[in-house]
Every structure is written in structure tokens, then in C-alpha cells.
Amino acid sequence: MTSSPRAPSDDKNLRHARDLQGHLDWLDTFSGTALGVLAVASGIYTYLGVSSLLDDTGAMSTFAALAYSVAVSVGIFVFWSYLLRLFPAITSARARVGLMGAMALGSVAIVAMSSWLNAAALAGSAAVEQHLARTVQDYQHSLETAHERALTGQALERDVARVRQSFEDLSKQEATGNLSGLAGRGAVFRVLRQKAAELAALESQIAEQTPLVEAAFSEGNGILSRMRALTVEPGPVEARSVEFSEAAVRLQGLITQMRQLTVAPLVARAAQDLAASVVLPELDSRTAQGRNDQAATITSVLEVLGQRAATLEQAAQEVAALAPAPEVTYTPVSAADAVILYAGNFVPSWAGAIAIDLLPAVLVLILAITHGVIRDMRDGAAVEQTMTVAEFRAALALARDIEEGHGDHADDPPQDRNIKRFGDAKP
After folding, report:
1. Which stretches of sequence are listed as region Disordered (predicted)?
2. pLDDT range class, residue 37, cuts 50, 70, 90
3. Which domain holds residue 181?
4. Is the residue at 3 inside a domain?
């Protein structure tokens, strides 16, 4: 029974399959070396990343970081070596799905144990500087908010001055007799001057706070300038972080001081006392009608006083109700933590760190596709058509050996020949 002749396209497919197999054999000569270089490179960056996490710089810490990086390199090399050999050889769809799941799980493990440390080594210092710059922005916002609120409180000085001036004007009118009808400095005049003096004292207290607010704001801006300089200065970022932390503590103290310098609570309390604490003098008119006029005028003054005090208190409460300066606390972070915290700002570094570990996955897929193509091209071909020259030579040598073995025992009885063949077949 003879086999059906093969079409020319089948012979062409076999030639293409042999070409692809030759390419794979050539690529296989350095694939292991290339995979080893990738694994070693990842291990080096992993060592740098681990070193940034360890506080101690002694020999034991160095050995621990070295051991971890070596373990990562070996793990990456072995993991991808398994997949480069096994995955292309698998033909079952179920088995391939299982290996794909194993490759995905292993890739996640590699990212967890190596890639983020590689990213820390690649962009750790820049990430820490980003953290410092972000903290400076937060402190600047807090300082400006505290300063703005303090200045808004200082603006109450104008409200206090306006109320004080109104009482002084009324006292002048009373002195000339245009208010109660009794010229001179009698009981009504003394009530008006009493409240004007209280408001003048409050105005003086508010004015004394203004230089303190400006001095604190100026000093805070100076500290902020130094903090900005620390974010971009050359040199190890760890040393700069220490000085940055000290500056942050001083700046936080200044912001707290500016919060305490706001005069809104003081003005609110003074406005309440303005109407509540009135020392009424003795009516000093010589006639009953005059004393009645003084009493009526004082009652009117107290009503006006209550209205002005309510207006002043409302203005102070509006200032006190303003949003306070946000609390900012600087928290030092390591290079690895900073890379994770600001991952969105360092996408290229993350991409490079992950690519150096997961690039062999692309090689696995390339080999799987190529082996699949070779199997499809060789499908249905006879054994002798797929044999290489080396395999054909080995088959001829084996055939000659078998023929020579039969010739040596041709004269023996059948039983003896079988026994000798069995003995020759033993290793």
C-alpha cells in the first residue's frame, strides 16, 4: 500500500517549518544568557531598592539586601526558564490555560517582590523630592490661610474705630448741650466717654497685634523659601529630609501662633461687655426736669450702645466663622513608599521597572506561536519527510548496526540467534 503523493504546497510548508526550526535553534544559543542578564539587572536594582528600606548600614544589612536580590534574580531566571521550555511544547488548550494562569500568578509575585523595588531604585529620590514639594505647597496654603484670617481679624479695628468715633462725636454734642439740652460734662457725657475709652483700648490692642502677624508671616515665608530650596538641592535626599523636617516643625509653630493672633474672639467678648457692663453715673442736674432729660438721654445712649455692640459682635463672629488654616503635618517617607504614594507621577519609571521583569513573557508567547506554526506545517507529513540530515544519518548508522548484528549470527540455529540477540540487546 503506497502513501498518497504530497502536494507542492506541503513541501513548501515543510521547508518553511525547517527554516523556522533553524531560527529557533540559533536563538536558543543565547536566549539563556539574555534571560540571565535581565535577571541580574533586576537583581541589582532590587538590591538598591532594598538598601533604601533598611535603616542600618552595617554588614548584616548589606548581606541581607544582597541575599534578597540574589534570590530575586534566581527566582526570575528559573520561573521564565520553565515557561520558555514548557509553554511552547504544550498543545492542549486546557494545559495552556493552566500555564497562562501560572504565568499571571508568577508575574504578580515578581512585581510584588521586585518591580516596586526596582521603581524605588529608579525614581526613589525624585519621588521623595516630590513628597517634599507637595508638603511645601500644603504648608504654604496653610500659612497663607492663617495670615489671611489674621488680617481679616485685624480689619475689625476699623469697625471698632467707627463705633468709638461715634461715641466721641456724641460726647462732643453733649458737651455743647446739643444732645440732652444740658451743656457741660455731666452724667451723659461721662457715659459716652466711658464707652469711647473702652473702645479706644480695644482698638489699641488690635493695633498691637498687626506687627506680630506681619513678623510671623515674614518669618514663615523665609522658612518656606528654605524648604523649597531643600527640595531641589543636590546631594542625598535623606540628609535634606532631616533639615526639611526641622523647618517644618518651626513653620508649624508659626502657623499655630498666627491662629492665636486673630482678634475676632477678643472683639466678640468686648462687644458683649460693651452693652452689658455700663457704670451709670449719678444724675447731676440741679432740676428735676434736667435729671429726667439726662435719664432719657442715657436710655437712648444705652439703646444705641446695644445696637452698635450687636453689630460689632456680628462682624467678629463672621470673622471667627471663617474656615481655619488646614492642619499640615510632615511625615517622612522612604523612597519605596514615595514611589508608591506618587506612582501616577512616575509612570515611565514604573513601566521600566515592570518591563525588565516581565519582558520574558513576550518571548514565551513568541515561542509558543512559532512552535504552533511549525506543528501546523508539519501536520500530516511522514516521518522521513520531517527528519533532519543529522537524524537521517543517525538512522542510517543504526540500520547498518542492525544489519551487521544479523550477519554475525546468520549461521546459528534460530534459538541460539534469538538468545544472542537478546543478550546483545542488553545494555
Report:
1. 404-427
2. very high
3. 125-338
4. no
| Same domain, residue pair 164 and 209 | yes
Average pLDDT in the chain = 77
Q: How far apart are the first and last CA of the chain?
A: 36
Which grid coordinates belong to 49?
A: 531598592
What's the pLDDT tens digit per position in 232-283?
888 788 888 888 999 999 998 888 888 888 888 888 887 777 665 554 455 5
Based on the domain organization, do 286 and 143 belong to the same domain? yes
Does the pLDDT at position 77 exceed 90?
yes
Is residue 351 within a helix (H) or strand (E), and if so which, with residue range? helix 347-358
What is the count of structural domains for the chain?
3
C-alpha dist (Å) from residue 55 to 43, 46, 58, 65: 20, 16, 9, 12
pTM value is 0.65
Cell of 378: 508539519
Is the same domain home to 113 and 212?
Answer: no
| Per-residue pLDDT tens digits for 310-349 | 777 788 788 877 777 788 888 888 887 888 888 887 888 8
Exposure string of 222-242, with b = 16+ CB inside 10 Å and e = fewer, is: ebbebbeebbeeeeebeebbe
Domain check: are 289 and 401 in the same one? no
Render pLDDT for 278-317 as a digit per residue (tens, 0 to 9). Answer: 544 555 555 666 556 666 666 666 676 777 777 777 887 8
371, 81, 361, 90 alpha-carbon torsion, rounded to 10°? 40
DSSP 3-state assignment of 6? Answer: coil
Return d(Cα 29, Cα 366) in angstroms, integer: 16
